[in-house]
Write a structure and sequence with these properties.
The complex is a heterodimer. Chain A is mostly helical. Chain A contains eleven helices and no strands. In chain B, strand 19 (520-524), helix 20 (532-549) and strand 20 form a beta-alpha-beta unit. The radius of gyration of chain B is 26 Å and the shape is globular. The chains are: A mainly alpha, B alpha/beta.
């Protein structure tokens, strides 16, 4: 066992290194990963480095433009926009950072299961999934949030649940391709059980797709979270949040655009960063249709 | 001296590796093809033969670069032409017929529209005559009822018909040169033989230059005047087909010939050990040095040039005059017949398998299913230690039978019994562990049957843990032992399948099957995805394992020669029904079932003196007939309505040889033209 498990870890470790190296060697991967890493680091250390108190209002400085003291100016109650932009991603990253893995894991496992079982159950379940996907997401989420209230403990399960559903489809499609291959037939002919086949044969081959899908879902989820905040169902004031900041500042956009610009740039740079990374990851893993796998 | 149509001068083609180094995959190749001449390019996968053929039409795959040399087509330098000029030449003056024409035909366009498009772009035929010309072309490629074919879609045609349409499209532009890239690979033997005859006729009729790329020396022997043998991106031998196939002056070509199993042989073909170098892997010296039997010190330090021999052959070997020492006969081991006969290892009684599910309405009304079963009426007994070969064309149900025995496809009827008279459960989930262990399946393509994400250790671990509960040191020791048995070492344990060659992968797949210590091993076309030299090694290994462990094999293949070298008994299947069964030397000799005779006639030998005998049409049937003899629609010896209405009786001959036909045995024997004479 010892030697096998050691080799096992070694193999995965090697592959992760190779994939990361490949991602970094691509322009999209290098830019994307740098953006994402910068956001994560800033989210961690921003409380220590912000120049002002995010709650401190100053009626003398309402909607003043950028200057050396306030790089991104101030908002309608005189709070420093730069401070609030630096802090505004923490809540979003926390919620989506927890909800994304949950969504990918539950959606992935359900998808793999239906992909393996196939047949009529699979057909029926996929129609249910389709029906679910055909409803606008914001409507479904608002119903839950209005019922159970806002706050992290409601937002995380809600986002994880709704964003897991499209993962089912992706995981099922990827599983279908794998199930048709002879090594799965070989495992079945040997007499392995269903769980053993999922764990040993299917999961390792679907994992690549799930990783890329997870990255894509993450960026969608960030957008959804910000939208909810924008509508007033995400973070409650005075906690700074990009979506909320955009909502607050949009009324003054014509004469104080810095209030909107700051959070918009922050949010879009993170989403673009994630998308670029996902793109490079797909290419490195060889699941990008346009290109063959180098690893 | 005729003028050369294609003149490839000293070209080298390569790509830039990730490390930044330029790695050549073609090195200093010269090739001239004259009017009316057909040149074969042979070599194993990765030898650069397809790259060379494509380079001859001025095309390089993405990532490849021309490093040196030039390609002239009728005096024009193909690599200095503009895009528009090239477009005019390609498809018109020089046409390509690819390996899988089913994929190269547009699926949403009717055959007529595609042909007319080719005529519009590449010929001077006026638009008003396009349809007439298209019909004429389809007639020239011997397609029955060309008018009807015009309005069909590609998926409505069989593989052989699609290939014929591809030929017709290539001929539309009245080309001066025809490039064929493995045009018959993947087709059934009878279809292949028909297509080759067609190509041969067309080349003679039209006086075209033809470049024929193939790994199959049998096909080359049939259509080519001259042969170029490639190895690791170099031409190692060039000569007339007769010279190259009868007495080649290069050790590699000799090894290749010796590794081809032949119908008349009793012994296994001789494997060519080792593997070709990777691109950029040859630093100095001869590229074949690691696998050569005649290797001397000089071969390692100096690269041999392509030198002319007294008989006109060109060979890249310092010791071309001594190559006669390398055996051509392929005198491998003679497979032993194991003693323990008599006790059945597997018995199939009236087995029938159907892919159709009975419809819901029929189930509710209690109506019997009207569709004909895919496989029906199979009675086969395989004795312990025996190797049973199953042969037949695609769709004959040979793999389907294996799947049912393995429990992956429950049969619709009949009974399967294993050793000791125990009934084998139809579905794998209901089988006791001992039955699961004793029957193991080896698949055709190791790329597909080995999980790409598992190391060899993990792959071998699965049967060892499942059946024997091995863990820790025991598991490791046993894995190494099994790898040694298939002539791989323990150092393979931590590798992934993608790091192995095709032959090594198939060995791992064999090792995984033998890890279960099986009594019955089902081999499903286990060598057809491999190069011939590797195929010989795998056959040798299977034979060795059988000798050591007394394993029973059911060996499925479409290749009659491969089946013959390994099998004690052979069963011939057509459309899921048995036609003939018996000891292999008797099945291959006269008298035979008419279908066996057709199959034998279509076998291509790598010998310019033999020609296939084509007695039946190469049509492909989609479903077996409801009544009568399964072969009724194609049989060259059809008697009449009795064949259509009544299931033919079994004629039982001595030593278990049985033929199912309405003809009397003596009539069959008297009428038979093709048989293997030993």
């Amino acid at each position: 066992m010892s030697i096998v498990s050691f080799l096992d870890k070694n193999k995965h470790f090697n592959r992760i290194i190779l994939v990361l190296r490949d991602v970094m060697s691509r322009p999209s991967g290098a830019i994307g990963l740098t953006l994402v890493a910068a956001h994560l680091v800033l989210a961690l250390i921003s409380p220590l480095i912000v120049p002002y108190d995010y709650k401190a209002m100053n009626s003398a400085l309402m909607l003043s433009g950028p200057d050396s003291a306030h790089w991104l100016g101030t908002d309608h109650v005189g709070r420093d926009v730069f401070t609030r932009v630096l802090l505004g991603g923490r809540e979003a990253l926390l919620v989506t950072g927890v909800a994304t893995p949950i969504a990918v894991i539950w959606g992935g496992l359900v998808g793999i299961f239906f992909g393996l079982v196939g047949g009529r159950i699979d057909e029926v379940m996929m129609r249910v999934v389709d029906a679910f996907l055909s409803l606008p997401w914001i409507l479904k989420m608002l119903v839950l949030i209005v019922t159970f209230g806002t706050g992290i403990e409601v937002l995380i399960p809600t986002l994880a649940f709704f964003y897991g559903i499209p993962v089912i489809r992706i995981a099922r499609a990827a599983t279908h391709d794998v199930v048709a291959r002879d090594f799965v037939s070989a495992a079945r002919a040997r007499g392995h059980g269903r769980m053993s086949i999922i764990r040993r044969e299917l999961l390792p081959n679907v994992l690549d797709t799930l990783m890329v899908e997870g990255a894509m879902r993450w960026s969608w989820m960030l957008l959804a979270f910000s939208s909810l905040s924008f509508l007033g169902f995400g973070v409650s004031p005075p906690t700074p949040d990009w979506g909320l900041m955009i909502a607050d500042a949009r009324g003054f956009m014509s004469f104080a655009p810095w209030g909107v610009l700051g959070p918009v740039i922050a949010l879009s740079s993170l989403i673009i960063g994630i998308n670029l990374t996902a793109d490079a990851l797909a290419k490195a893993l060889g699941i990008d249709r346009a290109q063959k796998a180098p690893i | 001296m005729t003028t050369p149509i294609i003149d490839v001068k000293d070209i080298s083609v390569g790509f830039t590796a990730k490390s930044g180094a330029t790695l050549p995959i073609l090195r200093n190749i010269d090739l001239t093809v004259s009017e009316g001449e057909s040149v074969g390019i042979v070599g194993e996968s990765g030898s650069g033969k397809s790259t060379l053929a494509l380079a001859a039409m001025g095309f390089l795959k993405r990532g490849l670069r021309l490093l040196d040399g030039s390609v002239a087509f009728r005096g024009k330098d193909m690599f200095s032409l503009t895009r528009t000029e090239l477009e005019k030449i390609r498809g018109g003056e020089i046409a390509l017929i690819p390996q899988n024409s089913g994929q190269s035909l547009t699926p949403t366009m009717r055959i007529g529209a595609q042909l007319i498009e080719a005529l519009r772009l590449h010929s001077s035929v006026p638009a008003s005559e396009h349809v007439t010309k298209a019909i004429e072309l389809l007639g020239q490629v011997r397609l029955p009822d060309p008018k009807a074919i015009l309005s069909r879609f590609p998926h409505e045609l069989s593989g052989g018909q699609q290939q014929r349409v591809a030929v017709a499209m290539a001929l539309a532009g009245e080309p001066h040169a025809l490039l064929l890239d493995e045009p018959t690979t993947g087709l059934d033997v009878t279809t292949q033989a028909h297509i080759l005859e067609l190509l041969r006729d067309i080349a003679h009729e039209r006086n075209m230059a033809m470049v024929y790329v193939s790994h199959d020396l049998g096909a080359i022997a049939r259509v080519c005047d001259r042969v170029v043998v490639m190895y690791a991106g170099e031409v190692v031998l060039e000569g007339t087909t007769r010279q190259v196939l009868k007495n080649p002056a290069h050790p590699y070509a000799r090894g290749l010939l010796a590794s081809i199993p032949r119908l008349a042989d009793h012994h296994l073909p001789l494997a060519l050990d080792g593997r070709p170098p990777v691109p950029g892997g040859v630093a100095a010296g001869c590229s074949f040095v690691d696998r050569c039997a005649l290797v001397k010190h000089r071969c390692r330090v100096e690269r041999p040039g392509l030198a002319a021999l007294p008989d006109g052959e060109l060979a890249r070997c310092f010791y071309a005059d001594k190559t006669a020492e390398v055996s051509l006969a392929g005198l491998g081991v003679v497979p032993v017949e194991l003693e323990s006969r008599g006790t059945p290892a597997l018995q199939l009684d009236a087995l029938s398998i159907s892919y159709h599910q009975p419809g819901l309405l029929n189930k509710l009304l209690g109506r019997a299913e009207t569709r004909v079963a895919t496989v029906d009426d199979i009675d086969i007994t395989v004795c312990r230690g025996e190797t049973l070969g199953l042969v037949g064309e695609s769709g004959s149900g040979k793999s389907t039978i294996l799947k049912s025995v393995a429990g992956l496809l429950p049969p619709a009827g009949g009974k399967m019994t294993v050793a000791g008279g125990k009934t084998l459960a139809p579905v794998v989930d209901n089988r006791p562990p001992d039955h699961l262990r004793s029957i193991q399946l080896i698949f055709q393509n190791p790329d597909d049957s080995l999980n790409p994400r598992q190391t060899i250790a993990e792959i071998l671990e699965q049967p060892l843990r499942l059946y024997f509960g091995l863990t820790g040191q025991d598991l490791y020791d046993r894995s190494v032992e099994i790898l040694n048995r298939v002539r791989l070492g323990g150092h393979y344990l931590d590798r992934l399948p993608s790091q192995l060659s095709g032959g090594e992968k198939q060995r791992v797949a064999i090792a995984r099957a033998f890890a279960a210590d099986p009594e019955l091993v089902l081999c499903d076309e286990v060598t057809s995805a491999l190069d011939v030299s590797v195929q010989a090694a795998v056959l040798d290994l299977l034979n060795e394992l059988k000798e050591k462990h007394g394993t029973t094999y059911i060996f499925v293949s479409h290749d009659l020669a491969v089946v013959k070298v390994l099998s004690d008994r052979v069963a011939v299947l057509y459309q899921g029904r048995l036609c003939e069964i018996g000891p292999s030397n008797q099945v291959y000799a006269s008298p035979s079932h008419p279908y066996t005779e057709v199959l034998l006639g279509a076998v291509l030998e790598p010998d310019p003196d033999t020609a296939p005998t084509l007695s039946a049409d190469d049509i492909v049937e989609l479903s077996p007939p409801a009544r009568g003899c399964p072969f009724q629609r194609r049989c060259p010896r059809k008697i009449g309505s009795i064949c259509d209405s009544e299931t033919p009786p079994w004629h039982r001959l001595d030593s278990g040889h049985a033929i199912r036909c309405h003809h009397k045995i003596d009539d069959l024997a008297a009428a038979q033209v093709v048989a293997v004479v030993e």
